[in-house]
Design brief:
mainly alpha
């Protein structure tokens, strides 16, 4: 997360705490210091939850890309690029692309902060990646970058997704094809 974004999140959390922490839903004055302390704890908890919520939305690349539909579109576009590339087309020529698109969508969704369960672990991705030649992994990474560029989204978000997934996409595809 960039410093500017972190600063904005911190300022927003502070303002949220200032507004919600100073308001009291209680029209009567607390009679003891323990009531006052628990009221302060509730305000602090509210601010903490607000900060956590903002941090999650800032790091959830699925939401920043435009939702699960965009991830599905990215997966489909990537597989189309793989099929049309002579270097990689033999990988997917006999596969059920509908099932593969679903698995790839779930894997990407999970890796980018979404709620889907990833079909592959990092260890499985790394092991599968080693089964490809460096040229194949590079061609798959290029196909992923091309698919990502076809989406209309913030360039910084696309760059972050490419850095997160691009180097692993060869292992992801190979691993999913083996499942």
């Amino acid at each position: 997360m960039s410093r500017n974004r972190l600063f904005c999140v911190a300022v927003a959390a502070f303002l949220t705490f200032s507004v919600t922490g100073c308001k009291s839903d209680n029209s009567t004055t607390p009679s003891s210091s323990t009531s006052s302390a628990s009221s302060s704890d509730a305000g602090a908890s509210s601010a903490s939850n607000s900060m956590s919520s903002m941090m999650n939305s800032a790091t959830n690349l699925v939401g920043q890309l435009g939702g699960s539909e965009k991830i599905s579109s990215l997966a489909s576009s990537f597989l189309g690029n793989v099929k049309s590339n002579p270097t990689t087309s033999n990988l997917v020529k006999d596969s059920d692309t509908s099932s593969l698109t679903t698995k790839l969508t779930d894997q990407l969704n999970s890796m980018l902060g979404g709620s889907a369960k990833a079909p592959l672990t990092n260890e499985e991705i790394d092991a599968a990646s080693k089964k490809n030649t460096p040229e194949t992994n590079s061609a798959l990474s290029d196909s992923f970058s091309k698919a990502l560029e076809s989406l209309s989204a913030n360039q910084t978000v696309k760059d972050t997704i490419n850095k997160t997934v691009g180097p692993k996409i060869g292992g992801i595809l190979t691993g999913l094809l083996q499942k």
